[in-house]
Design goal:
This protein is mainly beta. It contains 1 helix and 19 strands.
């Protein structure tokens, strides 16, 4: 009787061990949480201003110290700088929240910072800022290129009576914007000028199922001008 009881006891232990082993093998190992980088907060050059700080190299170039607030979960940064006159882009890498870049004087730029992590494939972009790098004896500044408001770039939109309204924003250090020229068409390379307007909205005729391209030329009181990027939308 005692031997049978002992055998039953051993059998119970074996069954419990097997059950415990199986339950352990089926446990889900929690995945490691990897935080994505947060967005950097830009500091300098300030948005929509004239930059007159930096080391002047010659009449045409200066060295400017770009600065931003460090972002979390970030190992390195890429500063993306676009010359708004030539539309050329320069990318500069940095391990810290500052980097010096040699740029043209008497020129408008836009810039942003991309935060990157060595343990994550995710990246995060900061806001985009614009500034004018001061030149020798500059007394009048060209407006910054217009930014889109509506329709949003690349969107498919609805029309009312085969019409939609184009809307944009523009900043000028001198605050002397005079007028805008609106370019619009169904081909990216052959947009037609629809004329000159003195406000930042313009109504255009559209057709269903058609893709349109448009851009804005901004002109100030002394004849300085800038041309925006080309935007597009589809009408449904």
């Amino acid at each position: 009787m005692e031997r049978r009881t002992f055998k039953n006891y051993l059998l119970s232990i074996v069954i419990l061990f097997i059950f415990w082993s199986c339950s352990r093998s089926n446990d889900t190992i929690p995945e490691e949480v990897i935080d994505s980088p947060t967005a950097a907060i830009l500091s300098f050059p300030e948005n929509n201003t004239e930059c007159n700080e930096g080391v002047i190299i010659n009449d045409n170039q200066s060295r400017v110290n770009f600065q931003w607030k460090a972002s979390e979960f970030t190992d390195n940064y890429t500063v993306v700088l676009k010359n708004l006159t030539t539309n050329t882009t320069l990318e500069t890498e940095s391990k810290t929240s500052t980097v010096e870049i040699i740029i043209d004087r008497s020129t408008s730029y836009q810039w942003h910072v991309i935060s990157k992590s060595e343990i994550s494939n995710e990246t995060t972009q900061s806001d985009i800022w614009k500034f004018y790098n001061a030149g020798k004896g500059t007394v009048s500044y060209a407006p910054f290129p217009a930014d889109i408001v509506a329709p949003e770039n690349g969107n498919t939109i609805s029309q009312i009576d085969n019409k939609i309204i184009l809307e944009w924003n523009t900043v000028d250090i001198d605050n002397d914007i005079k007028e805008y020229e609106v370019f619009f068409g169904t081909e990216n390379t052959s947009k037609e000028s629809l004329g000159i307007v003195n406000k930042n909205k313009f109504e255009v005729n559209v057709a269903l199922g058609t893709k349109y391209f448009w851009m804005i030329k901004t002109i100030d009181e002394v004849g300085n001008s800038s041309t925006s990027d080309v935007f597009n939308f589809i009408v449904n």
